[in-house]
Amino acid sequence: MVERLAEARSELFNLRFQHVTGQLDNHARLSQVRREVARLATLLREREIAAAEALAAAQDQERNARG
User: Fold this and answer.
1) Other C-beta atoms lying within 10 Å of the C-beta of residue 32
2) Which pTM does this prediction carry?
3) How far is CA 44 from CA 5, 25, 41, 54, in A?
C-alpha cells in the first residue's frame, strides 16, 4: 500500500506538471488521483493508529498481569 501511495503521488506530480504546461488531456484524472492519494494516506494512518492502540492494550495487559 505504501508503494501504491508513492506511485499515486508521483502520478499526481506528473499530472500537475502537465496541467501547468497545458499538456493535460484528461483534467478529471487530476481529481481522481488526488482523491486516491488522500484515500491511501487515510488507510495507512488508520492502520498506524490501530497498531498503536493494540500495542498500548497489550502493554496494559502486561502491567495488569504483573501487578
Assistant:
1) 14
2) 0.80
3) 9, 31, 5, 15
pLDDT tens across 18-55, in order? 999 999 999 999 999 999 999 999 999 999 999 999 99
- Helices 27-66 and 2-21: crossing angle, nearest 10°? 150
Alpha carbon distance 25, 2 (integer Å): 28
CATH of the domain at 41: 1.10.287
Q: Please give the DSSP secondary-structure letter assigned to residue 22.
A: T
Number of domains present in the structure of the chain: 1
> CB–CB of 40/5 below 8 Å?
yes
List the domain range (segments joined by +) for residue 23: 2-66
